[in-house]
Amino acid sequence: MLKMDQKDTDMNEKGVTSSTSGVVVQVREKKGPLRAAIPYMPFPVAVICLFLNTFVPGLGTFVSAFTVLCGARTDLPDRHMCCVFWLNIAAAFIQILTAIVMVGWIMSIFWGMDMVILAISDGYRDQGVPQQV
Protein backbone atom coordinates (compact mmCIF):
# COMPACT_ATOMS: atom_id res chain seq x y z
CA MET A 1 0.00 0.00 0.00
CA LEU A 2 2.82 2.38 0.80
CA LYS A 3 4.44 1.74 -2.60
CA MET A 4 1.24 2.64 -4.43
CA ASP A 5 0.87 5.94 -2.56
CA GLN A 6 4.49 6.80 -3.29
CA LYS A 7 3.96 5.97 -6.98
CA ASP A 8 0.88 8.27 -7.19
CA THR A 9 2.87 11.07 -5.57
CA ASP A 10 5.73 10.63 -8.04
CA MET A 11 3.43 10.68 -11.00
CA ASN A 12 1.73 13.86 -9.76
CA GLU A 13 5.07 15.63 -9.36
CA LYS A 14 5.87 14.82 -13.00
CA GLY A 15 2.60 16.39 -14.17
CA VAL A 16 0.76 13.16 -14.86
CA THR A 17 -2.63 13.05 -13.21
CA SER A 18 -3.86 10.07 -11.26
CA SER A 19 -7.41 9.14 -10.38
CA THR A 20 -6.96 10.57 -6.87
CA SER A 21 -5.54 14.00 -7.72
CA GLY A 22 -8.61 15.81 -9.17
CA VAL A 23 -6.65 17.80 -11.78
CA VAL A 24 -8.67 18.88 -14.82
CA VAL A 25 -6.90 18.84 -18.18
CA GLN A 26 -8.30 20.84 -21.09
CA VAL A 27 -7.50 19.78 -24.64
CA ARG A 28 -7.91 22.22 -27.54
CA GLU A 29 -7.85 21.15 -31.16
CA LYS A 30 -5.32 22.99 -33.28
CA LYS A 31 -6.87 23.77 -36.65
CA GLY A 32 -5.14 24.65 -39.88
CA PRO A 33 -6.19 27.78 -41.77
CA LEU A 34 -8.56 25.97 -44.16
CA ARG A 35 -10.27 24.04 -41.37
CA ALA A 36 -10.49 27.13 -39.15
CA ALA A 37 -12.11 29.06 -42.02
CA ILE A 38 -15.27 26.90 -41.90
CA PRO A 39 -18.04 29.30 -40.85
CA TYR A 40 -20.43 28.80 -37.93
CA MET A 41 -23.75 28.76 -39.78
CA PRO A 42 -27.34 28.25 -38.69
CA PHE A 43 -28.19 24.55 -38.49
CA PRO A 44 -30.54 24.42 -41.54
CA VAL A 45 -27.93 26.15 -43.75
CA ALA A 46 -25.23 23.74 -42.55
CA VAL A 47 -27.45 20.74 -43.39
CA ILE A 48 -28.11 22.15 -46.88
CA CYS A 49 -24.35 22.61 -47.39
CA LEU A 50 -23.75 19.02 -46.23
CA PHE A 51 -26.40 17.81 -48.69
CA LEU A 52 -24.83 19.82 -51.53
CA ASN A 53 -21.32 18.60 -50.66
CA THR A 54 -22.54 15.00 -50.64
CA PHE A 55 -23.93 15.11 -54.17
CA VAL A 56 -21.79 17.80 -55.85
CA PRO A 57 -18.33 17.94 -54.23
CA GLY A 58 -17.33 21.47 -53.28
CA LEU A 59 -20.72 23.10 -53.95
CA GLY A 60 -21.71 23.26 -50.27
CA THR A 61 -18.29 24.64 -49.37
CA PHE A 62 -18.68 27.24 -52.13
CA VAL A 63 -22.09 28.26 -50.73
CA SER A 64 -20.69 28.39 -47.18
CA ALA A 65 -18.05 30.87 -48.35
CA PHE A 66 -20.81 33.40 -48.98
CA THR A 67 -22.12 33.01 -45.43
CA VAL A 68 -18.82 34.52 -44.30
CA LEU A 69 -19.68 37.64 -46.30
CA CYS A 70 -23.09 37.65 -44.57
CA GLY A 71 -21.46 37.80 -41.15
CA ALA A 72 -20.96 34.17 -40.12
CA ARG A 73 -18.07 33.93 -37.68
CA THR A 74 -15.11 31.56 -37.99
CA ASP A 75 -12.21 30.40 -35.88
CA LEU A 76 -10.00 32.98 -37.64
CA PRO A 77 -10.97 36.19 -35.83
CA ASP A 78 -7.70 37.94 -36.67
CA ARG A 79 -8.15 37.55 -40.44
CA HIS A 80 -10.20 39.88 -42.61
CA MET A 81 -13.59 38.67 -43.89
CA CYS A 82 -12.41 38.66 -47.52
CA CYS A 83 -9.38 36.51 -46.67
CA VAL A 84 -11.62 33.93 -44.95
CA PHE A 85 -13.99 34.06 -47.94
CA TRP A 86 -11.13 33.25 -50.33
CA LEU A 87 -9.89 30.44 -48.06
CA ASN A 88 -13.34 28.83 -48.32
CA ILE A 89 -13.36 29.32 -52.10
CA ALA A 90 -9.92 27.67 -52.26
CA ALA A 91 -11.19 24.73 -50.19
CA ALA A 92 -14.16 24.38 -52.58
CA PHE A 93 -11.87 24.32 -55.63
CA ILE A 94 -9.56 21.79 -53.97
CA GLN A 95 -12.59 19.58 -53.36
CA ILE A 96 -13.82 19.99 -56.94
CA LEU A 97 -10.43 19.34 -58.54
CA THR A 98 -9.61 16.28 -56.43
CA ALA A 99 -13.11 14.79 -56.70
CA ILE A 100 -11.94 12.96 -59.82
CA VAL A 101 -9.82 10.64 -57.65
CA MET A 102 -12.50 10.43 -54.90
CA VAL A 103 -10.33 12.34 -52.42
CA GLY A 104 -12.22 15.58 -52.99
CA TRP A 105 -15.60 13.91 -52.69
CA ILE A 106 -14.67 12.34 -49.34
CA MET A 107 -13.11 15.64 -48.18
CA SER A 108 -16.27 17.44 -49.26
CA ILE A 109 -18.50 15.13 -47.19
CA PHE A 110 -16.28 15.52 -44.13
CA TRP A 111 -16.27 19.30 -44.66
CA GLY A 112 -20.07 19.27 -44.67
CA MET A 113 -20.14 17.16 -41.51
CA ASP A 114 -17.81 19.68 -39.85
CA MET A 115 -20.21 22.46 -40.84
CA VAL A 116 -23.11 20.64 -39.15
CA ILE A 117 -21.01 19.89 -36.04
CA LEU A 118 -20.00 23.56 -35.78
CA ALA A 119 -23.64 24.65 -36.24
CA ILE A 120 -24.76 22.30 -33.45
CA SER A 121 -21.99 23.40 -31.08
CA ASP A 122 -22.72 27.07 -31.82
CA GLY A 123 -26.44 26.50 -31.16
CA TYR A 124 -25.67 25.00 -27.78
CA ARG A 125 -23.39 27.92 -26.96
CA ASP A 126 -26.06 30.48 -27.95
CA GLN A 127 -28.82 28.78 -25.94
CA GLY A 128 -26.71 28.37 -22.81
CA VAL A 129 -27.20 24.59 -22.88
CA PRO A 130 -24.25 22.70 -21.38
CA GLN A 131 -22.14 20.99 -24.02
CA GLN A 132 -21.00 17.41 -23.76
CA VAL A 133 -17.26 17.21 -24.30
UniProtKB/TrEMBL annotation:
It is a multi-pass membrane protein. Its main location: membrane. It is found in: Membrane. InterPro entries: SPEC3/Stum. GO terms for cellular component: membrane. The chain crosses the membrane at residues 43-72, 84-111. Keywords: Membrane, Transmembrane, Transmembrane helix. It holds the Pfam family Spec3. This is Stum, mechanosensory transduction mediator homolog. It comes from Oncorhynchus tshawytscha. The gene is STUM.
